[in-house]
Amino acid sequence: MARQVSKSDFKAHALAYFRQVEDSGEPLVVTNHGKPVLEVRPYRSPSRSPLEILRDSVVRYDAPTEPVDADDWEAAQ
User: Fold this and answer.
1) Could you tell me the end-to-end alpha-carbon distance of the chain, in angstroms, rounded to an integer?
2) In CATH, what is the architecture of 3-54?
3) Which of residues 61 and 23 earns the better pLDDT score?
4) What is the mean pLDDT of residues 15-21?
5) Is the full-model pTM beyond 0.85?
6) How many CA atoms lie within 13 A of 57 on its CB side?
7) Residues 6+ apart with CB under 8 A from 29
8) Distances (CA, A) of 67 to 25, 63, 77
9) CB distance 30 to 7 below 8 Å
10) Boundaries of every domain in the chain
11) Where residue 70 falls among pLDDT bands split at 50, 70, 90?
12) What does the pLDDT look like over 50-68, one tens digit per residue?
């Protein structure tokens, strides 16, 4: 469970809490009258899609519509 801190305590020590979240990687929940209202967590960049990862990875592709020569094809037997 994420650590919880009151809004007033967070206001007084925000920079210290930011550093704790950065260092630990654990989220911090800010409460107002005991009820969670905010979550402070480390930023994680969105992961790239598989198509973005493969973009520009094909160096050369000659005759893509031609059949594959049977001698070049390695099939499991």
Assistant:
1) 52
2) 3-Layer(aba) Sandwich (3.40)
3) 23
4) 96
5) no
6) 6
7) 2, 3, 4, 5, 36, 38, 39, 40
8) 52, 9, 20
9) yes
10) 3-54
11) low
12) 888 888 887 677 777 887 7
